Amino acid sequence: MDCLFCKIIAGEIPGDIVYEDDKVLAFNDINPVAPYHILVVPKKHYDSMIDINEEDMDIIAHIHKVINIIAKEKGFAEKGFRIINNCGSDGGQEVKHIHFHVLAGKKLPMYEKDAK
Predict the structure, then answer these.
(1) Which end of the chain is more exposed for a tag (fewer CB within 10 A), N or C?
(2) What are the phi and psi torsion angles at 98 (to 5°)?
(3) pLDDT value of position 88
(4) Would the pTM of this model clear 0.85, i.e. be above it?
(5) Which fold, 4-104?
(6) Dist CA 74 CA 16 (whole Å)
(7) Confidence band (pLDDT; 50, 70, 90) for 113?
(8) Residue 63 near residue 97, CB atoms below 8 Å
(9) What are phi and psi of 5, to 5 degrees?
(10) Where are the domains of the chain?
């Protein structure tokens, strides 16, 4: 498979790892848009949210549990943060491996100026 995130998970490409367990990997984004910009990805490959079958859907709850752990460990839980999951090309997904962006460390704008 030629998936960037699968290569990071496999250790073929280095990543600035923030958290890891048997189900997920979290690492700092290489092009951060906030002081904290962490990507949380399941180790099992799914192209997007649409590709997760009902039996595997518990991975989404686990990802959110991990995000809570990271937010508390990094110290931004109290002030707040944003979780973003882009799904498909129209949704802005660039890497075809489901991932959640966690943004924190500054006041984030409510909406993008070009969103219509």
Answers:
(1) C
(2) -50, 135
(3) 92
(4) yes
(5) HIT family, subunit A (3.30.428)
(6) 14
(7) low
(8) no
(9) -70, -35
(10) 4-104
Q: Specify whether the CB–CB gap between 46 and 96 falls below 8 A.
A: no
Contact at 8 Å (CB) between 91 and 107? Answer: no
37 as an active site residue: the answer is: no
Cross-strand pairs, 20 = 25
Of residues 97, 100, 93, the one with CA closest to residue 67:
100
State which H helix or E strand residue 37 sits in.
Answer: strand 36-42
Tokens 């949210």 correspond to: 49
Between CA 99 and CA 7 the distance in angstroms is 14
Residue reference for tokens 């991990």: 66
DSSP secondary structure string for all residues of 49-110: GGG--GGGTHHHHHHHHHHHHHHHHHT-TTT-EEEE---STTTT--SSS--EEEEESSPPPS
Catalytic residue from among 37, 97, 99, 101: 99
Q: Which residues pair with 36 in a beta bridge?
A: 104
Q: What is the pLDDT of residues 59-90, one digit of tens each?
A: 999 999 999 999 999 999 999 999 999 999 99
CB 23 within 8 A of CB 59: yes
